[in-house]
Amino acid sequence: MQITIRGHHLSITPAIEQAIRSKFAEMTKHLDQVNSMQVKLTKDHQIDKRSKKGSSNHIAEAIIRLPGTELFAQACADDMYSSIKKLSEKLKRQLDKHRKMQLVYTPLVA
Length: 110
Prior knowledge:
Blueprint: E1 2-8, H1 14-27, E2 36-43, E3 58-66, E4 69-77, H2 80-105
């Protein structure tokens, strides 16, 4: 599986890259049909006028390409590592749902 990681207004450090690769490697180890995966990390620089701080300004998005379908998820948090964790949880739920749908619709060969 090929994982492409991009940063927008953010430099991708080796620690962030390792966190992404470890989260998604364990999530997709039981699903061998994943073609590719794109992860986009963004830091939004908007500041809340009342608190003078940015709230939930670390955004993580991912697209997983499977044969015949694509899965997309987005997560926001105050910290990049927590947004990556939220993103992996959302994608894990989608992959589980996709896996169950495949089991239901797989024709039985006698």
